[in-house]
Every structure is written in C-alpha cells, then in structure tokens.
C-alpha cells in the first residue's frame, strides 16, 4: 500500500499527458455508439428480432482478433503521415478517416431494406476502431516511463473515463435527437460525422508518444518477420511468467468481463422492451453513467494505488456481479426511473472500478519491447469472451422465454469463475505487482 498522503494522489491529474489520453479514450469509445447502442435501438424500433440484434454483436469480434495485425502498428510506417504525425497518430488518422466515411454511409441507408449494407459498414467501423485501439493503447503505455507507476494508473483511469465519455456522453446525442427533435436514425448518423471530424483535429494537434522507437533488432538467419513480430512477443510473455501462471492469467482475462458483456449487449433492447423511452435511455443509461464512470474511474485508480491492482480486481469483480442483480429487480418492477437511476449509478461505479483495475493489470503484464503487440494480444483475449459469447445473449433471453430477471441473475454468476482463478493466483500476482512497484520506485 502507498504511504503517500491521499490528497497528493490527485496531483497526477495536473499532468498534460493524462488529458491527451483522455481525448484518445473518447476516440476509442465513440465507435461503440455507432455500432452498439445506437444501432441496437435502430434495429429494435425497426422490428428486428432480439436474437438477430444480438448477432449484430459479432462485428465486435474485430476487437478480439486485432492482435493479428497489431505488429503492423509497431513496424509499418505509413508514407508521409508517419514523418509528420509519428507512428501512432498516423495510424489513428487513417482509421478515423475510414470511420468518417462509413458513418456517413450509414446516414444514407434504410434498415428495413438494406440490412446487409448496414452490417457491412458496421464491420468496417469495428475493424477500423479495433485497429485504432492498438495505436491508442500503445500511445498510452509509451507516454509514461517505467518509473511513473502513478501516472500509468492515472492514465488507465483517464483512458476509462475518456472511453465512457465517448460512449455515454456523446452516445446520448442520437437518443435525444430521435425523441426530442423527431429526427430519424439516419439523420442522427449524419450529424455524428461532425464528432469524428473533431476527433481528427484532436489527433492532428496531439503530441507524439515520447518513448516510441521502432524495433531495430536484426533478424537471425532463418527467422521470419512473422516470428519476430508475433511469435517473439508471445514467447517472451510465457518465458517471463512461466507457462502455468501465464495460462492462468490468460484464463482470468478471458472470463472476467463476460457477465458485464452479456448485460451490455442486451441492455438497450431490455430498456425498450420494459417500457423506457429514448429520452430515459439518453439521460440515465448515457449521461448519468457517463459522469458516474468518470468520477469513479478516477477514484478507482486512487483506491487501486492504495489497495493494489490485484485487490482492486477482486473487489471490483464482486461489486460488478452484485450490481447486475439490480437490473433483475427492474425487470420485476417495470420502467421505474428511480430504480434505473440507482442501477446505472451502481453499475457505473462497479464497471469503472473493475475496468481501471483490469486495464492497469494488462498494462502491468506488458514488456515495453513489444508494447502494442502484447497489450493487443491480452486485450483481444478479454474482448473475445466479451464479444463472441455475448453475441448469443439474444438467444439466451429467447431461450428463457423473455425472462429478464433470470437472465440478469445468470450474468451476475458469470463473473464467479474468473474470481476463483484470481483467488488461486493471488500470491504470485501480488509478488508480480510488488516487483513492478519496486522497479517503478
């Protein structure tokens, strides 16, 4: 635990690098509005079956396999752009330009007759977003030295706060427009292209990550580029951790967020089926969640500094499972906005706490020689459980005959296996964390 007075922990938020990362977090979270909550609401209003809405979540598989092309972000320099913007920002700019075009395309389509084209553009946005996330995560980790553990933790908090600002803060806009001004969803997509334009300017004006350097190690005879850029980072991780500890940590990463993902994938469908309006969703699910997450992401990072990442994960996981039960209560009561307010506050608190600890935990496991590749591999594994399995959440609700109460109870139980793994690995992980903190000091 830290011996520094608690109020001095807030000093890290005066660091300009932290706020650059906050802006990049917004860029990371915003595409989830376009292909997540906004698209789900559009499909639900068009009468699409909840199972098919759930299957649209398969587009998020891009976040689970982006490690396959993560070496490109480390080693391939984009002509002209890399010289003027640097390695990370040049990739970010290209991805944002593609997302801008795809978002504009969604504004021209009719969901009732052009579903396949909508699905295709959702896939394009997902893959471009997953690619820019590689650069954003690498930028964040490389922005701080190995001795700056407090800034790394604060960076994880601001990345989380920024992500939720992009997803919930900006994500409230289309719901207000559709209900308040009677716009259609296509017009809302067209307006949101302006948000992407603003993000492009943010990338252009941001500084470069100061600790990036291309890998210049000469390849040994017979060693392929594939081996050097993908196999070597994996081999280094297993060699450093030991295969038993490494496999156990990978199992934890895969399982930890599954319950939260099942809830999140069906949340918009649940809100609309239970009787909440688009304005209710915008106010409670978006705006309230936004501010709650920002506040508790920052507080969570400070608490994690005191308790440690491993203890923070354990507490956050237990709270995350318990918060899902509030949604089961709403399912039994109906569209009660007071209960919804309580649910999103508690869910935002537990989600922020657990996410900050989770991001810091994955960052802790990365070797800086392979920053982008190793982080992408570990984050992809976590996303695999969230996206691939949660795509079938609609089928689960249908199999339960629309019993939302039972569904949310099941999502609460889904976190238990990962917490059992964490308890089993508690001692070696605490030693790993202590060693990292000692190196940082």
UniProtKB/TrEMBL annotation:
Subcellular localization, as worded in the UniProt entry: Membrane
Protein name in UniProt: PAT family beta-lactamase induction signal transducer AmpG
Taxonomic source organism: Pseudidiomarina maritima
Assigned GO CC terms: membrane
Keywords: Membrane, Transmembrane, Transmembrane helix, Transport
Main location group: membrane
Membrane topology: Multi-pass membrane protein
InterPro entries for this protein: AmpG_permease/AT-1, MFS_trans_sf
Gene3D superfamilies: MFS general substrate transporter like domains (1.20.1250.20)
Membrane-spanning ranges: 18-39, 51-69, 90-109, 115-136, 156-176, 188-205, 245-268, 288-305, 312-333, 339-365, 377-400, 406-425
């Amino acid at each position: 635990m830290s011996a520094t007075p608690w109020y001095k922990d807030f000093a890290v938020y005066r660091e300009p690098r932290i706020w650059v990362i906050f802006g990049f977090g917004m860029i990371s979270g915003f595409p989830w509005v376009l292909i997540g909550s906004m698209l789900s609401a559009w499909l639900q209003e068009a009468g699409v079956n909840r199972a098919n809405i759930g299957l649209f979540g398969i587009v998020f598989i891009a976040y689970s396999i982006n490690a396959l092309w993560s070496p490109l972000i480390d080693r391939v320099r984009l002509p002209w752009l890399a010289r003027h913007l640097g390695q990370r920002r040049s990739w970010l700019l290209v991805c944002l330009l593609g997302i801008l075009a795809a978002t504009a395309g969604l504004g021209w389509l009719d969901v009732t007759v052009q579903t396949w084209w909508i699905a295709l553009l959702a896939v394009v946005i997902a893959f471009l977003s997953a690619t820019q996330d590689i650069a954003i995560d690498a930028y964040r980790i490389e922005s701080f030295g190995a001795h700056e553990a407090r800034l790394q933790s604060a960076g994880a908090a601001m990345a989380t706060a920024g992500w939720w600002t992009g997803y919930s803060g900006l994500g409230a806009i289309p719901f207000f427009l559709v209900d308040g001004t009677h716009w259609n969803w296509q017009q809302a997509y067209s307006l949101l292209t302006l948000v992407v334009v603003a993000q492009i300017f943010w990338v252009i004006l941001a500084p470069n990550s100061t600790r990036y350097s291309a890998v210049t190690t000469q390849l040994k005879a017979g060693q392929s580029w594939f081996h050097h850029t993908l196999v070597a980072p994996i081999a280094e991780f297993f060699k450093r951790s030991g295969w038993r500890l490494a496999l156990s940590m990978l199992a934890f990463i895969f399982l930890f967020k599954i319950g939260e993902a099942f809830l999140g994938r069906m949340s918009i469908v649940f809100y609309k089926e239970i009787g909440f309006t688009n304005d209710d969703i915008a106010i409670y699910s978006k705006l309230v969640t936004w501010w709650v997450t920002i506040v508790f992401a920052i507080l969570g990072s400070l608490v994690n500094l005191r308790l440690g990442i491993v203890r923070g994960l354990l507490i956050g996981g237990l709270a995350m499972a318990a918060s899902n039960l509030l949604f089961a209560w709403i399912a039994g009561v109906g569209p009660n906005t007071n209960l919804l307010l309580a649910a999103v506050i508690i869910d935002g608190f537990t989600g922020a706490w657990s996410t900050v600890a989770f991001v810091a935990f994955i960052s802790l496991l990365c070797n800086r020689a392979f920053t982008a590749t190793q982080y992408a591999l570990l984050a992809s594994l976590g996303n695999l459980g969230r996206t691939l399995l949660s795509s079938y959440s609609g089928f689960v609700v249908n199999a339960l005959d629309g019993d939302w109460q039972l569904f949310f109870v099941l999502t609460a139980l889904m976190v238990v296996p990962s917490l059992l793994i964490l308890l089993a690995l508690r001692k070696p992980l605490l030693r790993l964390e202590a060693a990292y903190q000692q190196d940082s000091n």
